Amino acid sequence: MYYCKSCKITFEEPKRFSEDRSPYGEKGGGSFVEYYDGCPICSGGFEEVYLCEECGEYKESVEYYPFANEYMCDDCYEKMMEDGELVENQIEEVINNDVGRGLPNEEREEI
Ligand SMILES: [Zn+2]
Ligand SMILES: [Zn+2]
To answer: From the CA of 46, how far away is ligand 1's center (Å)?
Structure first.
């Protein structure tokens, strides 16, 4: 997904715009059309963003955390870490189980 800071919207594909930059007057001729990708609303710049499965928001960067089995942004990860030792124990548990006999209580989500 992509995010436009000006419009504060996310969109799946940037729109391709074309701009005629042909010089005024005939100086050796030919038209020069420049193509560029921009926000579908304002045609401005955008940045690529990724869905954080924890907070459901689009962030500039997310990472996959096996212990949570989801993609998370830094904020959510930090929040989880701040929530205490429980999480750290869970991480160890998952890692141990991962090596041995697979994840405990594996939840199967339909995508
Ligand atoms: Zn925009
Ligand atoms: Zn998040």
So the answer is: 7
